[in-house]
Amino acid sequence: MTSAEAARTDDRVDAATDADRSYPRIQMYVAGEWTDGSRGKTVPVVNPATGETLGDVPLATTDDLDVALAAADEGFRVWRDTPIAQRTAILHRAADLLVERSAEVGRIMTLEQGKPLPEARGEASRVAGGLRWHADDARRAYGRIIPSADDTVLSVRTVPVGPVAAFTPWNFPAGSPMRKIAAALSAGCSIVIKASEETPGTACALVQCFVDAGVPAGVLNLVFGEPAEVSAHLIDSPVTRLVAFTGSVPVGKLLAAAAGAQMKPCLMELGGHAPVIVAPDADPVYAARKAAAAKFVNAGQVCTSPSRFLVHASLHDAFVDELVTAAEQVVVGDGLEDGVGMGPLANGRRLSAMERLVGDAVDAGATLRTGGHRIDRPGYFFEPTVLTDVPASAAVMTEEPFGPIAPVVSYTDLDEALAIANALPYGLAAYGFTRSSATAERMVRGFEAGILSINHCGGSVHEAPSGGFKDSGFGREGGPEGLDGYLVTKRVSHLLV
Ligand code: NAD
């Protein structure tokens, strides 16, 4: 986006004031039509900042899902055979529309998920960039010609794998669905996506951009439903050729097992419990400020959120003092209000989880340095929290907190810190702070994780892959690797007669 475009987006944002609390009608998009489905059953969508119901989301029946699958089957044939230049032009048009609509999409996202409006709007326009990146990269999904040992012409081609069944969560209501839709459509696949029933308005707004850009009927289908019922039905269908999921490790294991039983490939973007190692030569104030900014963004509900702070004993007190100051400076409130730095948690489950994790840590001997309590107001607000002296046995040190809690422990030896960092089954993100290139390289080699940042807490980027080691999943999103899972290789041996 150019600075002029950014300025125009800002104007629109001012127009989307906190007074506007209207929420769109939620429907599914199946076979080229917006529909309520045939079940007649809905679940409410709740504003986590107020606890009020915003609207209702319809739940699909298995018959509705069969219509979506048949449409995706037909849509795949149409889209696969659409010339790549035409596909790319449509996807770029969808990206343009999303940027144009980012103020409104962000407003809907804040209403249903809670994150501050600038974060929500930033997410909406950023994911348009991801769509453009994949759309352009798909033009380079080259095959190759191999010198043959005989009279054959031997070649390798990459082709789209087929209709995709995708499942996305509520923490990045635009980012998660877009990563799957962008990769699938860029590769030439069709998709049936079940976005989160807790943040359906953003998913509908994204899909509308593709519809308005001219994506043919059946290529992109959006459904909602009972998650276990929908995933079982979509994964079992012979139409589905690839399963793509973002969410928790336990659900990922269930879906990967279901896909395995059908011999279907799957891509799993699962949880993490990212360590941050602060080496003795680091600047503790700088490290604490960077870590705090990353910790409290999206109220800590990020799979790559820094969540175990391993600080060299010599810097521990200086680091903790700055982290506590930063936590106490975070302005918590309704994300639609000006100046808010952290919104509510996205649902009541996270609020109960925060109370349980803090209570358990304190019972185990941790010191509560700041925060630690739900905020006494409607909605699901929790204080930015710092814990120190947290024993390894505390649940917060092993269980992904997915909330605004920063547990700090001190260490004396880098190998010991790396051993703690790698001790969990997770392996998604890891962070290191040091002024020494040798120490940085020890960290890079030592961390068992797929997303590493040194001297900052970097977010995901379009041009490089993100993904996990160990229980954090497999497959990559973003970068050239992001298309790999959506493509399949054909070897062609052509005997010239
Ligand atoms: P959850 O495990 O119940 O659900 C996680 C996501 O999976 C939700 O979007 C849910 O709708 C979906 N889901 C659940 N069961 C499903 C099924 N059988 N088939 C298909 N989809 C299914 O947990 P939750 O309370 O929504 O979130 C809490 C935990 O999930 C967090 O602690 C975090 O570990 C994890 N999570 C991870 C990410 C991520 O980006 N990796 C995102 C959201 C949540």
Automatic annotation (TrEMBL):
<dbReference type="InterPro" id="IPR050740">
    <property type="entry name" value="Aldehyde_DH_Superfamily"/>
</dbReference>
<dbReference type="InterPro" id="IPR016161">
    <property type="entry name" value="Ald_DH/histidinol_DH"/>
</dbReference>
<dbReference type="GO" id="GO:0004777">
    <property type="term" value="F:succinate-semialdehyde dehydrogenase (NAD+) activity"/>
</dbReference>
<dbReference type="InterPro" id="IPR016162">
    <property type="entry name" value="Ald_DH_N"/>
</dbReference>
<keyword id="KW-0560">Oxidoreductase</keyword>
<dbReference type="Pfam" id="PF00171">
    <property type="entry name" value="Aldedh"/>
</dbReference>
<dbReference type="InterPro" id="IPR015590">
    <property type="entry name" value="Aldehyde_DH_dom"/>
</dbReference>
<protein>
    <submittedName>
        <fullName>Succinate-semialdehyde dehydrogenase/glutarate-semialdehyde dehydrogenase</fullName>
    </submittedName>
</protein>
<dbReference type="InterPro" id="IPR016163">
    <property type="entry name" value="Ald_DH_C"/>
</dbReference>
<comment type="similarity">
    <text>Belongs to the aldehyde dehydrogenase family.</text>
</comment>
<dbReference type="GO" id="GO:0009450">
    <property type="term" value="P:gamma-aminobutyric acid catabolic process"/>
</dbReference>
<feature type="domain" description="Aldehyde dehydrogenase">
    <location>
        <begin position="34"/>
        <end position="492"/>
    </location>
</feature>
